[in-house]
Amino acid sequence: MVFSSMVFLWIFLPAVLLTYFICPKKFRNGLLIFFSLLFYAWGEPRYVILMILSVTVNYIGGLLLEKEIVPKKSIVAGVVTVNLFLLGYFKYFGFLLGIWNEMLHAFGKNGVLVPEIALPVGISFYTFQALSYVIDVYRGEVKAQHNYGNLLLYVSFFPQLIAGPIVKYKDINAQIIQRNITVEKFGAGAMRFCWGLGKKVLLANAFAKVVDDIYANNLEMVSRKALWLGALLYMLQIYYDFSGYSDMAIGLGKMFGFDFLENFRYPYLSTSVREFWRRWHISLSSWFRDYVYIPLGGSRAGKKKTYRNLLIVFFLTGLWHGAGVTFILWGLYHGFFLILERAWLGKRLEKLPKAAGWCYTGIITFWGWILFRTESLSTLAVYVRNMFVEHPSTVLTSAYLDKKMVLLLVLGILFSGIVQKIYESSRKQFPQFFPKNGVVTVPRMTAALVLFWLSAASLVGNSYNPFIYFRF
Amino acid sequence: MKKTKFFIALFAGSLLLPNLVFFPFQKYFDTKNNENRELAAFPKIRAAGWENFSADFEAYYNDHVPFKNDFVKFNNMVDTSLFRTTKLGDVVIGKDNWLFYLTSRNGEDAAADYQKTNLYTEEESRKTANQIIDTETWFKNQGVERFACYIAPNKETLYPEQMPEKPVKRGEGPSRMDAFAAYMEENTSTAFGWLADDLQKYAPDYQLFCKYDSHMNNLGGYFISEKILQDFGFDPPEISDFTITDGDTYQGDLARMIGREEELTDDVLYCVEGYQPDVSCEAVQEEVPNGEEIFREFSSDSTNSKTLLVIGDSFRLRLEGYLPYWYQKCVFVHIDHFTPELMEKYQPQDVAVILVERDQHYMEELSKYFMENEKK
Fold it and tell me: Which one of A460, A462, A471, A472 would you mutate to disrupt binding with B, by most B Cβ within 10 Å of its Cβ?
């Protein structure tokens, strides 16, 4: 199930909210577990067992760490291995076998059969959450969770299960046991949910239609302008899709009394790649910082090791996003610029006007997203080459840039941080005229409800599938 | 706090009220099926195939979501009135609200036909031509005396001046069918009619296609029938011999697809008055499941004792007002529903296959609709 579906909006969400607030407080966590497992099983009926297995392994691991029957290092190594094995098998086994086969073919040998392994939805997210728990217990930062249900709720809680944010156990464990829901919090959560829904359905999905259509064509026949348009729209699509989903997750969390940390802070306002990664998918970058970068030594072991650590982290970041060469290269691409900024460029950027840093970061991320989106290096080469080389084409921007898309594109650019930055500056100067974020005002309330209903109309419209001739 | 509570009430209402209001009172709302397909039924709960329940339920709920038709109308109104969008799904809105069907799915590619980006290679022309030749040979082996294959033009081929300039731009040079017709002429002796040229003569003076439908009207049907009859050795009368009246008004399939069938009601089918007044003709048998005719048999008191079999897609239907008057027996069957038993039963002397330009998958695999059916 996804948030941007009518079954979720008009059946699941009202059902869970209604039963949650009718239910006595002591049963509420159990109710959330039930609905979260139902949410996951709705899309992955078989793989819900895998998630429960993952929670069980980590639950036992946590208790063993507390009891110290065997050395803690062995326990945590074992549990981490099991977690990574599950993730590795489902997400990367086919990819690795593919590479192995290519190597065999290079030596003139026959490859091995690559099995079709379905990727369980959300496994990257819940595995990282589970790892966060067991490592925090190992480090002594949190106590082992004795209540299996509480740990199951932490991992499976439906707002952040499928697409994050990756919530660290130490940030949420207290709220699992005790949380308050106030009218203001619920209202702020509902507004945030509507805002995220609008970002995802009205902007991200609209941009995605164009981008997918461009990529579905023979790229040799797509005009230069259309390729540039596609790249720009993808840059906006991925931001609104991901941040919209995070907004919905944070909003839903608030409605149930949970406060999740922010996951996006207008990353396209960044003036360096380093700043970009403090604003983009914050939960992932902070996870890698806490559980990979710092244990490797971070930036405390000299320049060479720092650069090595950055490359390792961003190699893993790319790999986490997908089992593909272009994902890995995208991660390394960002890692390279982070190293460059540390070594030399960062200090230069600080001395330049912010606009220069903003342009530089925008250009780097723009090209990075093209690398991220293309599925192979050969496609990437064609795409980039045809962005610069004039060629005969039948797929033109006129096919995509109607008034509606122009409006959405302008809104997409403005609301990617520009409007918000102006608003915040204005609020600091004139706080009496600009209420704080999250406060319900008439304009915000109206905007939220308009976004909700426009999104619902769009989703219903997408399910309308008429045929010229009767289809049985 | 009051504002927040009010907002929460409105939000809760947005989540709860659609189902609570719609389903108990749905007889008062528009629940007409405008999609021309069977909507998903409520899934059965059973042990076998249990893991499909969620997908089946989503399909059911999406097909029956509260106020669906109202949402579709709202979306289309916003797109057409506010944004002046000229393409809603597969439907393109042209000048004077002329609607065109530019689909690129289910084996049809009208968009590529219009943009002229799908010309056949030499090899593809040869393969497709062989399909038609093999079909003709098969029919001749069944005792058929005269066989012809016709391709009717897409609406936008005949009326490009009614198309909008965006989002689809007309291609230059010959189209796929222009080039293929020339190939058939140069390389085969099979009777093949690309009807665009024949109809172009009349298009400036007569509206040959429905404004809000993807099909021809009765005038288009008349001129195609005239061409077929001439090819089969008849001497049909000229259109100038008849009085043309408006005929019935018609809600087109394209208007229905974009939810504007109640608004776009000013088109007519036209009627050729007094066609073959000395011949009486009637349909004696028909099969029309779900409103889509797949078979119809006509009998007439024509002096021509032969039987004509017309096989084709939906473009064959407008010929029913004319061709049956020239044969004592005339059978129309949808190409998907042709069976060799029809040949045994009716033993036609003349066979005409008629398909529309965008239905290229039929032409490219023509013989399988006859010869593979025989193997079955």
Answer: A460
